[in-house]
Amino acid sequence: MACSKSLSAYTEAVKELACEILEVMAEGLGVPDTWVFSRLIRDGESDSVLRLNHYPPIINREWCMDKDKSSQITKVGFGEHSDPQILTILRSNDVGGLQISLPDGVWFPVTPDPSAFYVNVGDVLQVPIYIVSMHVMLWSFSA
User: Fold this and answer.
1) Could you give the C-alpha distances from 46 to 18, 41, 106, 125, in angstroms and in order?
2) Over the stretch 39-90, which tens digit does the pLDDT of each residue have?
3) Nearest to 74, CA basis, from 52, 58, 85
4) How many domains does the chain have?
5) Which of 17, 44, 85, 111 is the most exposed place for a label (fewest CB within 10 A)?
6) Same domain, 95 and 84
7) Which of 81, 78, 79 is nearest to 134 (CA)?
8) Which pTM does this prediction carry?
9) CA 121 – CA 133 distance, rounded (Å)
10) 27 lies in which domain range?
11) Using CA atoms, how far apart are residues 11 and 23, in angstroms rounded to an integer?
């Protein structure tokens, strides 16, 4: 029961964070009704979703070595994609692997920061407001 209460509280806190971000975005865009985006989440009939994904580090490097063990094979934890939602809020930890695609197509690693959240603008806001960042989650290896 304690886990359920904690998860519910976390869900509500992340939902509120998403709404605050959307309201600041609307304000920055000069939208008169700054609740225009957050209303999509706050509405009781909203189909907004909280999904929890966990990408643990791969402990056994042998899993990701080629047959002659001369080089490592990169394992993708979640392939290249954009997010179909309005926003994706990622809770960071101390495991690397998140990368974003820069406008020139170069993949740039995002430094993990356990005290931070990362925000990806989803496809819903892609046109004409923001350009969506493609990103990928690579498996990380612990030493």
Assistant:
1) 14, 6, 36, 16
2) 888 887 777 777 777 666 665 555 454 555 555 555 556 778 888 888 889 8
3) 58
4) 2
5) 44
6) yes
7) 81
8) 0.70
9) 7
10) 1-52
11) 18
